[in-house]
Protein: 3'-5' exonuclease DinG
Amino acid sequence: MSNKYVVIDLETTGNAPKKGDKMIQFAAVVVENGEIIDQFSSLIQPNQSIPPFIEELTGLTDDMVKGAPTFDEIAPKVLKMLDGAYFVAHNVLFDLSFLQEELIDAGYNGFYGPVLDTVELARILLPSEDSYKLSDLANQFGLNHDRPHQADSDAYVTAELLLILEKKLKYLPVQTIKQLHKLSGGLKSDLDIYLDELIQWKEATLEALPDHLEIYQGIALRKAEQKSEKPTYVKQIDFPTMTEDKTALFKKAFPLFEIREGQFSMMDAVYAAFGNEQHSLIEAGTGVGKSLAYLIPSVMYAVQNNDRIVISTYTTQLQDQLLHKDLPLLKKMLPFSVEAVVLKGRSHYLSLQKFVASLNELDDNYDTNLTKMQILIWLTETATGDMDELNLSSGGMIYWNHIKNDETVFLTEKSWINKDFYYKARNQAQKADLIITNHSMLLTDLASDHSILPSYQHAIIDEGHHFVKAAGPHFGLSLDYLNVRLILSQIGTLEHRQLLFKLEKLLEETDVKDDSLLHSFEMNELMVELLFEMDEFFRLIGTVAKNRKKGKKGVNRLKIGLNQADQDSSQKLLVGKAERFYFLTKDAVEALGNRLNYLKKQVAQLHDKSRAFLEELTSSVEDLKLVMDSVKALFMTSPHEQVTWIEIDLRAMQNVTTVYSEPLNVASLLSERFFDRKRSIVLASATMTIKGSFSYMLKELGLKEEECKLVKIESPFDYDKQVKFIIPEDLPDIKAVPMEEYVASISEQIISIAEATKGRMLILFTSYEMLRDTHQLIKESGFLDDFAIFAQGISGGSRSRLTRNFQRFEKAILLGTSSFWEGVDIPGEDLSCLIIVRLPFSPPDDPMTEAKSKKIQAEGGSPFSQFALPEAVIRFKQGFGRLIRTKSDKGLIIVFDRRIVTTSYGKAFLQSVPAVKAEQKSINETIKLIDEWL
Structure:
């Protein structure tokens, strides 16, 4: 098959052609027979000034377009190129609408041929990519994209991307292409026209299915790898105790390996903890190489003892690093095979049976159809069926809830069991030496009545300082407005034509003869009332939170404690509303449950489409039961030592409202349900101690010092030579001046320091409000207009995306809060200056902080020294560790908060970080030092 494609990219003065924005550059690349055969580009005279933002983005100036042709002069050439071709662009609706407007203004009819959008194509054909921005895709495929946001460069790269995507499409099995074709009618692209041609071409040729694929019940799937059975006998393996033996091991994977004594010490500590059946806390400083230091002894112990070790991480990023980076290295180092699997909660895995059933349902929802197409491609690639491999839109996530893996009642077809991703993962976990999971999954397993993980007695808890914080939600409850609304809207009313509508239609078809069931009208009225009461209930929760705002100005996100003992009038009203909502939910659950039980008896007469939607309804009713139980526990009981609070965004009050409840102290729960039941748990982290002591962490975890092995391993980095640590002399004390004055002062310092360091700066805040105000002042000053400034919650995107964008620009500044204090890894010259704006104490009115402080005080202790200070020091250590990530890194750490040197407790921070002299300097001295140091 042969098509002509014209790939077009435009640069414009803005994004609204109907409001007068004009083209300033046009570029087209012609593709035929799988090759680029022609190119054309031209600057365009827009007869208006180019805005400064567009100049900065594109590099195009008024002087550059001064002598350029107007669009009507090149329009005939453009139309000739487009004749008989597909119009292709990356985000096609923008370029096409702009071109149409310009063509009409020039007196032509416009373009009305077929179009293809490479963003849409990439989302479908590359379902696991992190980003679909052109520069990110170019980087992924090694395409030379040296001038992003210039039309000729963008058009050429888009053409190269199109060729890659077309090649992938042509290699897909015809069965998959036909299924894509059925779903493609509602896309932005005319992909249905292309796929129709492709099917005809495929059917006219003899297709051989690739070896790695199989067609099973009409779906193309990646074949499962045939693994040989694990040998029951393994020759004697000796753990390397001598330095030279360990070195020889590492040299198999790292020919230029340099000995790190700390890494070897940690290997010994982990192996000894397992062998002695003893719990252990290990603080391993940055650069020790802790992943391999615990993986090697873990797998050796597992193989020697025919046992399994669980490895738990806090973040999925570290999970992926272990699987894709560290385990391949481990396999090179060891003289035997290593069986390692990642195991996640059941809902992370796709239910093939549900997905296949849903493919037959006609749906005009764009996100649903696009997600179905993504999954069809993904099934030819995935070995795991794990949702985390997919890049789904928010609408795609809603669809995922219909096809996720869970217990089935109506879909009882056994033919999918052998292909089931979740069962496959569990079976692999039973045979594995190492099971890699995360704190959330491990804690869900602890809190659950039914075991999810295979039985184990030994575990590594990486990022162990997070284990207590991660445990709270798993022993607590939450009630989220968006989640409750989603569950109820999926069931809907008869008018909504969702699950309830389908249920009533099915009951009508089966000619119900059961007087115990509510009449269809009554069932509908119950759902109408329930939806109304849900909105009223959450509106009142928002009102209670707003009334307790306590005069906080400029604060949009609130955490408000909901103390059961404080029974003021608004809270009594809230409890009344909760009771009404609870009993209505209970009635709905019972009424829907009765209908489902009736239909279970008729299951043999139901066709597959009916069974699929009843499965979905069963899942929604189970979710509604959990909502009912949460409402009762949160508002209608008085649980002992629980902290309950409301979190709310006042800008979208009802939409962003959640009620949480967690145990005040999880130490006893962790001790009883975890540490007391396991032989050896090793917790590892770069931040376990305060002033060299593990006491705080032991207390938080519910462990006794005499029962644990405590190991502190220093970082191999020479901080004294790699870091300059500065506390400014000429900043006010944060507690001595109004917040506006403090923000103005630090903004001035940031501007001066940024100009001296030429960017490459990470600034850590403790509150979003201060970050936002500082960002605004810096932008308004105009002094840093030539810097790329990224701010969490303002610039948009996830933490990893903001970090990637920051690393792309030489003169870049990144402002972050909360999650940026840890887990951000920016090695080398991309980061040369770290600013910590404020010592990271939790706000005293944070509900959990307030409750813990009251408890400590009631017991005669000091809330500050026993809780607030240790927690802040741990977080400060995490922030401090962002700067130096390798032996060759160097840079500055500047702490704006002068309390670190003016208060007695400041020493706790200074004595808990690596030994480096803290120098107090004026801004002029600091600038001079930067010039000399960097």
Observations:
- The mean pLDDT is 90.
- DSSP finds 35 helices and 25 strands in the chain.
- Residues 119 and 133 are 8 Å apart (CA to CA).
- The longest strand covers residues 23-32.
